[in-house]
Amino acid sequence: MGRQKITIGPNDYPAWGKLVKSWATGKNYVDYVMTEENPVPPTEEMPPKYPKPRSFGEFWDQCGSAHVGLVFDDGNNTPVPRDGGIGLIVLQGDSDVFVLRVPPKEILVDHENRFINGATYQLPPFYARIFGGQPLPAEYATKVKRMTIHAERIGEYTLNTCG
């Protein structure tokens, strides 16, 4: 198998979301202090502090500046090196273009093997905060249930348009 999937630190989801929103809009969500009166940055920055990265090195640097830790999904949270020969593709569609993002075969098969061998599907911690707890253990009780959750999450991820 090739490289492990890259993910972010378990507490980095708010910072990650702000960085992605900055790339999508040109506004600086990362450094903006939200208030109830003004929860969204009012203007685009010219030039943006966080432009869409053109290389993995730029991506890595911006994640660091935004306090987003990059780790491999290897069970050990091994830090991702800046200069590890990793490529980067940034895609941004618009309302007239549907971007179908299909997961890498190696990573999908690796995760299937994990679930077949008893691993549970790990949801980001903010789901427990929003929904008042972790998923019901019975939902992970069998291989079929774990594979069903895996299929549902991949399907949801592939169809959602990040908005």
Written account of the structure:
The protein is mainly α and 163 residues long. The protein has helices spanning 13-25, 56-65, 105-116, 126-131, 143-159; strands at residues 6-8, 70-72.
What is the element layout, followed by pairings?
Blueprint: E1 6-8, H1 13-25, H2 56-65, E2 70-72, H3 105-116, H4 126-131, H5 143-159
Antiparallel strand pairs: 1-2
- Main-sheet strand order equals 1-2
Question: Which term fits the overall shape?
Answer: globular
Radius of gyration: 18 Å
Strand content: under 5%
> Uncertain spans, ≥5 residues at pLDDT below 50?
none
Strand-and-helix sequence, N→C? EHHEHHH
Q: Using DSSP, what is the number of strands?
A: 2
**What is the overall pLDDT average?**
90
Q: Supply the number of helical segments.
A: 5
Helix fraction bin: 25-40%
Structural class: mainly alpha
Which features would summarize this protein structure in a list?
163 residues; globular; 2 domains; mainly alpha
Brief account:
The chain has five helices and two strands, in the order βααβααα.
